[in-house]
Amino acid sequence: MSFLDARAAVRFAADKLQKVNLFETAHMFCDVYCLEPGQAQKPHAHEGATKFYFVLEGRVRASLGAEVRELGPGELAWSAPGESHGVENASSARAVLLVAMSPNPNAPASPNASPKSDAK
User: Fold this and answer.
1) What is the dihedral angle through the alpha carbons of 61, 62, 68, 71, rounded to the nearest 10 degrees?
2) Which of 1, 3, 35, 103 has the most CB within a 10 Å radius?
């Protein structure tokens, strides 16, 4: 276990949103997303993983499936496995989100994992 100051990880870039990893385990990852006005993470989905966006600063438009809502500090949107999701900073101010997903799609395969069988 470790203690982190997520505010110290905040950084912005004019060309694209910044995803700053706070920590990563075999089970999950946790990032800070930093969005300048107009920046977005296009809607996408993750089979078999749950993801959330928690607004720390600013305002974003969060999409979950066909639904779109504006979120501000302290508000959270989460997507179920396979559900389309994305965020957009449509405001005139910067936005900072805490984002986590489990299971971690970046984790290496477990050395104890069994190979998939083609047997029926």
Assistant:
1) -60
2) 35
